[in-house]
Amino acid sequence: MVRVGIIGGSGIYRLLESPERRVLSTPFGDATVFLGEFGGEEIAFIPRHGEKHEIPPFKVNYRANLYALNLLGVERVMATNAVGAIDPELAPGTFVIPDDFIDLTKCREGTFYDGKTILKVRGREVGGVIHVSMTPYTYCPEIRGALKEAARELGLEVVDKGVYVCAEGNRFETPAEIRAMRILGGDIVGMTGCPEAALARELAMCYASISVVTNYAAGVGGRAKLTHEEVLEMFSRRINDLSEILRRAVGNIPVERSCPCGEALDEFLSR
Ligand code: HPA
To answer: What is the number of helices (H) and of strands (E) in the chain?
Structure first.
């Protein structure tokens, strides 16, 4: 059984030394997972955009990825994302561990529970019409704590709160869209945090993410033009620190879960 899974975003395509590559088939399609040692234990790693960054955000098979981790027995998931800063105080290079999200995606498969498919979650069958709750915590407090503690141990600064807005993409936002997101309460904007976080909850998995601010979002900070090049360049500057945070965080995740994430399906299992 593998306990911890890591989903790496833009810029993280390899994390493990000499991983075992496995293609797992799920009711939602195939997922490629890499197994290997990281942070003192065997973990499962998924490069979200594929091994060569060939999968755009709206084409990522979020359901297959999460379900494959579930098949391996993973209960604890950490993810990374590149984001733009809606809040001008969040300078490029900053790490943010968001505590909530707003999902503005438009055409993604956002649930496992289509009314028909029966899933197996840690040995129990679950299906039908299921509405998981995103309260009291949108993201797992234990995983967020493990990431925060890892950064502290390494002497790296992180911003321990923030609202992640997920845009559909594939283009970057317009300045007016970013102003609207600001009014809605968003601090950072990316294209991959949703529906991933909610799908993890639908499998009663713990999930938290750490975002790297790679740029000011469109129209923020008076910048004329935002390019993908700029996003990748800033990400590559932070990748070593980010990998070290993840490595340490693995060891900081308690073996026993004391967060409520594991109970996400309990009310539906007793029906
Ligand atoms: N917008 C959306 N996604 C992003 C951005 C952005 O500005 N930067 C990195 N990912």
So the answer is: 6, 13
